[in-house]
Amino acid sequence: MEKQTLRITLILILLTGASCNSDENSRVADLATQQLERQADQNRRMSELQQEVTSGSRELVEADAKARQEMIAIQREIQAGQNEIGFQRDQLEAERREIADSRNRDPIIAAAITKVALVVISLLPLLLCWLLLQQKVEPADKNEITELLLDDMVSAEPCLISPATREPDKRRLTDLPQSPDNPSLEREN
Questions:
Q1: Which of 5, 28, 64, 94 is deepest in the core (most CB within 10 A)?
Q2: Are 172 and 157 contacting, i.e. CB atoms less than 8 angstroms apart?
Q3: What separation in angstroms does the CA of 40 have from each of 4, 44, 70?
Q4: What is the dihedral of CA 26, 29, 33, 36, to 10 degrees?
């Protein structure tokens, strides 16, 4: 722009010197002065416009930097949220696996307990027999056997000798009259 202004100024000066007429010279000088004023005004406006563009660019850069910082903060929050969701998903997956293992294992344990219980129940009679066989039975002496047989013979309902084997015409000791004073003496007789 300044080169153009210089050209116009030179052209006006040359025209002024070349012309003979003073009116024309004054008129050309006025035009050159007006042109220079316009050019100065345009330069001033261009400078102001350049300053506005510079400040607008500066504001734009600051706004862009602020937006980037906000975007980075938001991305960090999103990443933290995704990490938390991932952690919770891993915990949920571990619980699901544990429940699945429990569902698979529980019937096996129940079946094993049932089978062990059946084995124990079936072995109990054998254990009882073994315990009975392991007991030492002391043989009864002759007096005890005699007393047991006599008690059975004297009783109204015998346990060792069945009443069916008894002959009806034979009397039992209980059928004999006993004295109310001394029943044990009659037994010994």
A1: 28
A2: no
A3: 12, 6, 45
A4: 170
Q: pLDDT 10s per residue in the chain (189 long)?
A: 667 777 777 776 776 665 555 677 778 788 888 888 898 899 999 999 999 999 999 999 999 999 999 999 999 999 999 999 999 999 999 999 999 988 888 889 999 999 999 999 999 999 999 988 888 777 778 888 888 888 888 887 777 766 655 555 555 555 555 555 545 444 444
Token reading at 116: 């062990």
Buried residues in 169-185 as b, exposed as e (16+ CB within 10 A): eeeeeeeeeeeeeeeee
Q: Which two tokens stand for residue 83?
A: 């990490």
Candidates 163, 159, 160, 188; CA nearest to 176 is 188
Are residues 153 and 145 in contact, defined by beta-carbon separation less than 8 angstroms?
Answer: no
